[in-house]
Every structure is written in C-alpha cells, then in structure tokens.
Amino acid sequence: MVGIDIEQTKRFEKMLKKFDKKTLLRVFSQEELEYCFSKKYPHIHLCGKFCAKEAFFKATNIKTPLNKIQILNNKNGAPHIYIANKIFSADVSISHTDEYAVAVVICKTI
C-alpha cells in the first residue's frame, strides 16, 4: 500500500505564529517538535512530518490521533514511523523546498 501527501510550507509558517506549544502537541510529539525546532526553518520540517503522517493514513487507513504517530529520524537522518513507541514496517521518504513538502509512505505489512 502506498500513500502520498503534499502541502504548502507557508501554511505551517503561519501556524507557528498562530498556535502555542500545547496546540502543536495535538499534531506533533515532543520529539518531533524538538527535532523540527532544532532546524533553521522549523516550519518546513513540521510540514514534511505532517505530510508523512497524512501519507501514512492514506496508505494504511489506520485511524489514530496525529500526535500518536511519530515521524522520527534515525542517526543517519532517515525518517521512520513509530506508533506506541514501536517502529511501523514502512518505507518513508520526505522532501521539501521553500514552498512545498511532500512525503511518500510504502507499507510493507498492515
């Protein structure tokens, strides 16, 4: 199963100006926020992680809160999907420019 999502990064730049951390935690985990805010342009990385979550939903049709799905990077920077602190068997690819972020999720098993 394959899922893909694309979003405008400006949407997330505006979101950072509008929402507080408590609101962001409804969508992202603490670890995701720490990773993204360690970058020069956190909104671009948040957008990419959000795309990966949406692509995951499209690939699996699993319904779970956004903040319970974590898109975390390994030591080499490759993204992986974690649900309930366990890695989910899927390939994840995230790319972004200044204007857009896109993610593809290919599930190995459901």
Automatic annotation (TrEMBL):
Recorded GO MF terms: holo-[acyl-carrier-protein] synthase activity; magnesium ion binding
Keyword Transferase in annotation: yes
Entry EC no(s): 2.7.8.7
Keyword annotations from UniProtKB, A to Z: Fatty acid biosynthesis, Fatty acid metabolism, Lipid biosynthesis, Lipid metabolism, Magnesium, Metal-binding, Transferase
GO terms (BP aspect): fatty acid biosynthetic process
Boundaries of every 4'-phosphopantetheinyl transferase domain copy: 2-105
EC primary class: transferase
Cross-referenced NCBIfam families: acpS, pantethn_trn
Name recorded for this polypeptide: Holo-[acyl-carrier protein] synthase
UniProt source species: Desulfurella amilsii
